[in-house]
Design brief:
The protein is of the alpha+beta class. Helices cover 33% and strands 27% of the residues. A hairpin with a 2-residue loop joins strand 4 and strand 5.
């Protein structure tokens, strides 16, 4: 039910899959799940294909911390960040977004990316340290938390020079293992 490309909804579906497009301030899939929830199902199966990694993140890392959808979290991050950035591929299609939310002398760095980011990984890796330096210039340190299941982001954070300072066994709404990281 969530596997089509949503070609009639372009350009919106170039960034988000159809089920995450907002309707009345909530992702479409949330409306569907709320209707199902009314009938108290014991299991719900969602078949995914196009931009499936974004849909899976809907039910993983962001939800594990806040209970919010990735779309809502992304909008909040974009609104609160000093200088939110969009990373595009050669066709000018967004493949990731990142920013820093000011917290006094500290900044909470965040990033959300699609599987398409892997296709430009060499270019991304070459440029990301410089981008991080620009994002950090107004803060004594950058920090945040990463889901221990997210090995791709953990490896990227290590490459960027972040230090993992704490292990939180029961972090966020879902009480999962998260690592706290900083860059001074």
């Amino acid at each position: 039910m969530a596997g089509g490309k949503g070609s009639r909804l372009k350009p919106y579906t170039e960034v988000l899959p159809k089920p995450l497009l907002p309707i009345d301030g909530k992702p479409a899939i949330r409306h569907i799940l709320e209707k199902f929830n009314y009938h108290s199902p014991t299991k719900i199966f969602i078949t995914v294909n196009y931009k499936s990694e974004i849909l899976r993140s809907y039910f993983q890392e962001i939800k594990a911390v806040s209970g919010l959808s990735p779309l809502v979290s992304l909008i909040i991050g974009l609104k609160l960040s000093d200088v939110p950035l969009v990373i595009c591929n050669k066709k000018n299609k967004p493949v990731a977004m990142l920013g820093v939310v000011p917290q006094g002398l500290f900044g909470a760095i965040w990033m959300v990316g699609t599987e398409e980011l892997k296709k430009i990984s060499l270019s991304f890796i070459r440029n990301c340290k410089g981008v991080c330096d620009v994002l950090q210039k107004d803060y004594q340190l950058l920090n945040n938390f990463v889901d221990a299941r997210n090995t791709l982001h953990i490896n990227w954070l290590k490459w960027m020079g972040f230090t993992f300072i704490n292990k939180h066994q029961r972090y966020g709404i879902e009480r999962r293992l998260f690592y706290e990281f900083v860059k001074i």
